[in-house]
Amino acid sequence: MYDSTMRTPQVNKNESVALYDQVAAEIRRAIADGEAAPGERLPPAIHLADVLGVNKNTVIRALHIFRDEGLL
To answer: What secondary structure, in 3-state letters, does 19-33 show?
Structure first.
């Protein structure tokens, strides 16, 4: 995921779903599609924010979802 091979992000600021939930879903999709291997570190939040076109704090909130689920 560091090399920005992420396909066109599916984050829509006009959607009724919270941005951080959309970001979490996009990260899950990237992992499921093999864009990040098991045990591989995710890119820094600032990089993911840039790729997804959202604020860094939105990415951090999405990552907290994974932490709370025990995935990170």
So the answer is: HHHHHHHHHHHHHHC
The Cα 21–Cα 59 span in angstroms is 9
Contact assessment for residue 66 and residue 24, using Cβ atoms and an 8 Å cutoff: yes
Model pTM above 0.85: no
Contact (CB, 8 A) for 10 and 29: yes
pLDDT, tens digit, for every residue of 13-65?
888 999 999 999 988 888 888 887 778 888 899 998 998 889 999 999 999 99
**Number of residues written out for the chain:** 72
In whole angstroms, what is the distance from residue 59 CA to residue 19 CA?
9
